[in-house]
Amino acid sequence: MTGGRGRRPGAGDTRSLILAAARDAFAEHGFEAATLRDIGQRAGVDPAMIHHWFGTKEKLFQAVVNAPVDPQEVLAAGLPDDPERLGEHLVRTLLTVWDSPQGSAALVVVRSSMRSSRGAALLREFVLARVIRTAVAPLGLTEDEALWRGNLVATQLAGLVMVRYVLAVEPLASTAPDDVVAVLAPQVQHYLTGELALTGGPPRSPSGATPRTPRPTPRSSG
Amino acid sequence: MTGGRGRRPGAGDTRSLILAAARDAFAEHGFEAATLRDIGQRAGVDPAMIHHWFGTKEKLFQAVVNAPVDPQEVLAAGLPDDPERLGEHLVRTLLTVWDSPQGSAALVVVRSSMRSSRGAALLREFVLARVIRTAVAPLGLTEDEALWRGNLVATQLAGLVMVRYVLAVEPLASTAPDDVVAVLAPQVQHYLTGELALTGGPPRSPSGATPRTPRPTPRSSG
DNA sequence: GTGGAAATTCATTGCCCGATGAATTAGTGG
DNA sequence: CCACTAATTCATCGGGCAATGAATTTCCAC
Questions:
Q1: Which range among A70-74, A78-82, A165-169 has the greatest average pLDDT?
Q2: CB contact (8 A) between residue A159 and residue B164
Q3: pLDDT tops 80 at residue B11
């Protein structure tokens, strides 16, 4: 059991244990609601160790977030030759990453991005924009069409992440990856290479932004 | 400064003041990190009033979430007779609500809910679950199939909300509603009434949960 | 106007949090 | 095997939190 105090016997890579426990806890509760006591318990370690190794809760969080995955790199690996299989590749890759331990880290990033509109901007710029562009790059589309199809793909993939991982809605949260791929991949593929049903021609965002107008405003005050 | 205790003189719709203050506070800090003290201060009111009017912090949050819009009510209005037009109705209704001033309030709720698993649970229970069931109700499906198809619809709609409103990614954020409906409605319709491509039969969530496996765990301990 | 009901604040309770520092034990170099 | 350093736990502090109940004031029916 919990022996007395003092240095532990054998190996004990306590720092890593804390880091992993913190990653899970932050993913689960967000930064504010996660507690050092809980993290310590998950790591099987006294909460004081966290201060010993990381100083403060904030610094621990930074340590967790600074060990991210490069989405482009992951995506690029195993890109299929056939453009008609690209949708399947995207969905499967997404599921693989998010079902892995790295998924917790990704959850941390997504959750913490919601803390401010600046966080949302970061998520938009560095993840969505780059990832989506990487994803549709093999298709050799025009600039406008790449953006538009990329956005559509993003809606389906972002929605999958939301429902399955962030909100964990059943039954989708517990459905086998193969089944998810089977159902969603064709839809994603349609956004990539299918014929898009449009009433009055493609929504050619007429060069630059022309914000539609009286929408609630993409306010950045938060 | 603040006069003594006892009932206030004039009008004082305290309940509404608290509700508005709570909406802002939850939006800014998320459910867990928002404090009743802060909400009370924003509303210019003693925190004890919150307990007087709402009971607990959680009930206050529910009141905030349910205030902007009763999704069921909005959805029910204008339900098409033809099940094959249900997808279009869902997408169009969603865009109408989110493009309206109520959309700002909804955005607040979504942002704050995503930040912790607790907030996510509340969103899942009180909004998503009900909306999904209402949405697929006209189809007269079996329990399992309704849940499954509802989840799929939710991925597409939630993704639309994320990309267009929460992250405000261009060009989708500035695309005319009609164009969005034209492109997305067929996909949603497919989830509602189309034939779903499945490898080994429908993912009949085998009664109860069978958590896929070693994911970060949907633990509810927190 | 007077008596009760509703609204509001104050004072307090108990809990949990993050942080700190002393006490204790295990490794390590000589 | 002895000193020294690093790792770990324990006990505790001050603070902020949600919640409760009593005290006080206004409103309203009669």
A1: A165-169
A2: no
A3: no
Q: What is the CATH number of the domain that holds B42?
A: 1.10.10.60
Residue A139 has, within 13 A of its CA and on its CB side, a CA count of 26
More confident site: B181 or A32 = B181
CA angle, A110 as apex, B128 and B150 as ends, to 5°? 25
| CB atoms inside a 10 Å sphere around CB A15 | 16
* Chains A & B: contacts with CB separation below 8 Å: 231
Helices of type H across B34-141:
36-43, 47-54, 57-66, 71-76, 86-99, 102-113, 117-123, 129-136
Strand D closer than 7 A to residue A12 Cβ: yes
Confidence (pTM)? 0.73
If asked whether residues B132 and B156 sit together in one domain, one would say yes
Q: How confident is the model at residue A213 (pLDDT cuts 50, 70, 90)?
A: very low
Judgement on whether residues B23 and B94 belong to the same structural domain of the protein: no
Considering CB atoms only, which of B116, B166, B179 is closest to A203? B179
Residues with CB under 7 A from strand C: A 4-10, 34-38, 47-48, 51, 55-58; B 2, 4-8, 12, 14, 44-46, 48-49, 52
Which residue segment(s) compose the domain that A187 sits in?
71-193
B106 with B31, same domain?
no
The count of domains in chain A is 2
The reply to whether A44 and A106 lie within a common domain is no
B207 within some domain: no
Q: Which nucleotide is closest to the Cα of A59 by its C1'?
A: C18
Q: Which residues of A touch B151 (CB under 8 A)?
A: 163, 169-172
B111 and B53 housed in the same domain? no
Q: What is the CA A206 to C1' D14 distance in angstroms? A: 60
- Establish if A209 belongs to a structural domain: no
Q: Which chain B residues are within 8 Å of A162, Cβ to Cβ?
A: 114, 155, 158-159, 162
A143 within domain boundaries: yes
Q: What is the pLDDT of residues B129-165, one digit of tens each?
A: 777 888 888 888 888 888 899 999 999 999 999 999 9
Q: Which of A109, A115, A13 is nearest to A66 (CA)?
A: A109
Three-state DSSP state, A181: helix
* CA A150 to mean position of chain CA atoms: 16
